Amino acid sequence: MSKTVDLTSLLDFLPCRTPSQWVEAALKDQALMLIDHANCEKKAAATALSLMHRYLDNTVLLNKMSRLAREELRHFEQVLKIMESRGVSYQSVTASRYAAGLRELVRKKEPGRLVDTLLVGALIEARSCERFAALVPHLDEELATFYGSLLRSESRHFRDYLALAMQVAGEQEVEDRLARFKTREAELIQTPDTEFRFHSGVPAAIESRPVGAVA
Fold it and tell me: How would you classify residue 207: left for phi > 0, otherwise alpha for psi between -120 and 50, otherwise beta?
């Protein structure tokens, strides 16, 4: 599946690639990776539903977020099934600084608040998709197939969020706001993090070694 999905525009959209150290950390603790991945899918569905409740007059947004929420919940169920088959218990883990760090830049007043929230959504979905693609070559067959199957929907989610932002604001405003968010996103992805999460930065205490050497 991953070989048939063109991620060029998505990779061009992101300000940087995921550091290899993050991939190493994910492979080293796949149980935690799956737990936080499940959390991310649940939060993505909740975000879509929140937007539906807040912006009742935007029919295009309502339709796209309804579809997105259903897909994210389906992905949540799929992650839980994989976890169960591997004896991984679903549990609460603290949130990473990533989403909160991006949302610090969201404006308080409308329509700026909606535009910025949609751009944050686009970045989160794009980063998730990029990380799925980065992990696929190093995972066992089951997980590689599953993560590869997510690439098409996750790349569409990024485009949907971006298109909705363009609908609300002009292209120049979107570009200006994206520049600020991308600078913050790159900082969050490339700087040391105290804990591993699906959207965390570079793990501060991981050994430096080739990705292929991680079991």
Answer: beta
The set of residues, in sequence order, having a beta carbon less than 8 Å from that of 16 and lying 6+ positions away, is 186, 189, 190
Q: Which residues contact 195 (CB under 8 A, 6 or more apart)?
A: 94, 96, 203
The string of DSSP letters for 157-209 reads: HHHHHHHHHHHHS-HHHHHHHHHHHHHHHHHHHHSEESS--TT--EETT----
Cα distance between residue 58 and residue 52, in whole Å = 9
| DSSP classification of residue 90 | P
pLDDT tens digits, 91-135: 989 999 999 999 999 999 999 999 999 999 999 999 999 999 999
pTM metric for this prediction? 0.92
